[in-house]
Amino acid sequence: MTLVAASPNPPAAGQLALAVLLAAVGFFLLLPKPRGRSVAGGTAAVLAAAAVLGAWAHQRFGEPAPDWVGKLLFILFSTGAVGFGTVLVVQRNPARGAIAFAFVILSTCGLFLLLAAPFLMAATIIIYAGAIIVTFLFVLMLSAAGGPSDENDRTREPLLGSLAGFAFVGLILFTLSQTQDSVTPAAAADSADWKRLSPLPAPVLTPEERHTLAEVAGKLDEVGRDSFYGDPAVAGTTRQERMTLLTGIEQALEDVVGKEQGTVRPGSIESRLAGYRSDLQARAVLERAAAVRRLSDVLEKKVEPMVGDRAAGRPAEAQAEVRKLRDEVLLLHGAGDLPARNVGNLGLLLYADHLLAVELAGTLLLVATIGAVAIAHRKGAPR
Amino acid sequence: MITVWHYLVVAAVLFGIGLVGFLTRRNMITMFLCAEMMLQGVAINFAAFARYHGNLHGQVFVLFIVAVAACEAGIALALFLMLYRRAKTLDVSSWQELREVGVPPTVDTESLPPVPAEPADPQLSPAGRKPAPTAEETVRV
Fold first, then answer.
1. A116 torsion bin: left (phi>0), alpha (psi -120 to 50), beta (else)
2. Cα A216 from Cα A219, distance rounded (Å)
3. Which residues in chain B have their CB less than 8 angstroms from residue A357's CB?
């Protein structure tokens, strides 16, 4: 009972237990057996369990922002995966089970696509399509045609099996909800927007910060051009306009990444990330913000004197530094997102960081091939 | 927006359903498919964490899972072939002599439902009288 007592929300734990029980009873009724199989009762219990579990997940984890298309696709694919998985487990005919498994794979691939993994989606479809067809061949070759059989119409310990399996799921889900409590900062737990802290993608940058950074990068582009340092009469911008542009950039950068002036004054990124997250990604973003902060000195020290008088500084050097600053700002702008070139970056990572593991996987495949041939080889005369 | 927690819930449920199937079903091919489904649940976990942390290491891990699943499929199907050749059935319980010492064997007490008899071929009732062969037909026969 200490487990339930530790939960800040005991009714939610009860809801979870109810879902687990309903699912176990439903699977017990649905699993094939010679007597006592009830498809209608089992389906009703499983649907009720799914509804209770869905309500629990919705209440526990909520939805932070209205995104109807994403939510609809997620619900579609996750329901598909779980529903067809249930069909696979309770289906008597293994050939129909293989078809249900194909739909489980398709739904999983949809989830991969929602998780920004297009290469995984394509690879999984290709590989498992082959695997399912081979399974089909085996079913056609080895299954007894027609009539009830031991392997398809009996199950081992249907009640204990489904209870054990779903108790396992219930414990995992309970731990998940406890974990979410522990990673949520206590100060923010009462406010309405605490759920915004852990959505996908990880919120290392808010949309406003991202927008500001994109604007700054565009303005820095202008500052990096030759015409910015040229004669005001030729370039068509007055000195006043140039000063306004520079001040705007400095102000925006100060808001987002902070300013280094004797002591560091933290910007919005630091003040938000410092309390909430301590993972590798947040640390990388903080380092990047610090780099931008250091480089932003160039505007004040090297570019500003030149606005009044071109001869007061060295334009080429200032331009190079401004371009460097712009690159850093763009890198910071893209932090927190997966790269758009999924396949290329995946290949780079595979062959740069995980080369040894790739070699080991190749060896494993070779050994498995040899093993399969050795096992299936027919020695001597057929029995 | 859907959070990482939602994906973890779906992955856990998929894994659990596969676990129940693997524990209870007796057809080796269905058990194999259930094990693959558990692997899919784990793969969703890794992909969700890859998205959450904004790097691709999780997706690389899924690729290795797929490679290991391919090895597993090859070995498992070869084993099914061997076991079927010996026992002429896909039932795992026909291999229960491999169980631990001291564990009682599982015995199927309930008999399977009888196979429904095939419907007999339809018989046409004779209608009218049998025509007498003409002279021409007699010659031909």
1. left
2. 5
3. 64
Domain membership of residue B37 as a residue range: 4-94
Domain range summary for chain A, segments of one domain joined by +: 2-190, 207-334, 344-374
Cβ separation A345–B28 shorter than 8 A: no
Give the model's pLDDT for residue B63. Answer: 94
Give whichever of A57-66, A198-207, B12-21, B118-127 has the largest mean pLDDT. Answer: B12-21
Question: By the 8 A CB rule, do A45 and A26 touch?
Answer: yes
Task: Answer yes or no: CATH 1.10.287 is held by domain A207-334.
Answer: no
> CB of B20 within 8 Å of any CB in chain A?
yes
In a domain, B131, yes or no: no
Q: What is the CATH number of domain A2-190?
A: 1.20.120
Is B7 an 8 Å CB contact of chain A? yes
Q: Is the peptide bond before B119 cis (omega within 30 degrees of 0)?
A: no
Provide, as residue numbers in chain B, all residues whose Cβ is less than 8 Å from the Cβ of A74.
2, 6
Q: Give domain status of residue B15, yes or no.
A: yes
Rg for chain B (alpha carbons), in Å?
29
DSSP, residue by residue, A163-198:
HHHHHHHHHHHHHHHHHHHHHS-GGGSSSTTGGGGS
Structurally, how many domains does chain B consist of? Answer: 1
Quick check: do A2-190 and A207-334 share a fold? Answer: yes
Dump pLDDT digits (tens) for A289-299. 888 888 887 77
Question: Which residues between 66 and 125 in chain B have a beta carbon less than 8 angstroms from any beta carbon of chain A?
Answer: 66-68, 70-75, 77-82, 84-86, 89-94, 106, 108, 110-113, 115
Q: What is the pLDDT of residues B31-78, one digit of tens each?
A: 999 999 999 999 999 999 888 877 889 999 999 999 999 999 989 989
Is the Cβ of B49 closer than 8 Å to some Cβ of chain A? no
Q: What is the ipTM score, two decimals?
A: 0.83
Tell me, what's the pLDDT at A380?
A: 65
Q: Which of A105, A120, A136 to mutate to test the interface with B (most CBs of B within 10 A)?
A: A120
The answer to the question of residue B14 being in a domain is: yes
